[in-house]
Amino acid sequence: INIIHSQTHYAANIAKFAKFLSKVRTIQTHHNLFFNEGKLKLLSSDYHVVVNNQIRNYLIKQYPLLDPLRIKVIRCGIEPKIVFMPKPNTQIKIIAAGRFIEEKGFDTYLDAIKMLPDNIFLKAQFYLAGEGERLSHLIERIKKDKIRVEYIGNLKPLINTLEKTDIFIFPSHWESEGFPISILEAGMTKNLIITSDFLALHGHFKDFVDGLIFPQRDSIVLTKKIIYSVENFNALQKMTNNFYNFLINNFSIDIAVHKLKKLYCTIS
Fold it and tell me: pLDDT of 141-152, one tens digit each?
């Protein structure tokens, strides 16, 4: 073994000890921003792969002793999809999906649906998918408040369902959010993206160009974005196509593999 490539700082710290016993090179991929350092070192590898420039700039600013030449930007790779439009849905299918923790903001999604006027439900169906510690809370809210959204379970792989939906909502307010795979998968399957605003979004996604952005935790604005999207769905397909083309050109798995191979060959 010449290289150990870790996907978490936990694994990177273990790899650091392996380095003491051999001449391996170590790499760590940073998928998210991080603001709190615990007992384990966050930067214990020889090289660091980051999934966007925002994370790279953050590392350089926060860790001035870190050599910028050892930080490589390699975006996540996703298999390109050919999706024929329009999708054969009689109603617009809208979904939010992910890990059910407080920071992911699914209560904001439910709050927004709760405020929608009745006529929207004649044109659109709403779905919730995922699992996590707040599953029972969210299910209880849906029943208690009679929120017109269907929980459809923990879907793996999610992308198979996204091929059949029309709008993907990402309501996270996690301060460390990177650039989530769920947004990539939704964009690659030509869903219109409605996402909360977070730091790493910028540089990849523009409001009213690639989709729609709303302030974190703001269910009122999200409600307005949903209404606008449903009422103008066909006209907004240009934004969906813009983001799809951006992903094809920048997030293809072939591009990611090529850059990783180049890095491995350089340091081995």
Answer: 999 999 999 999
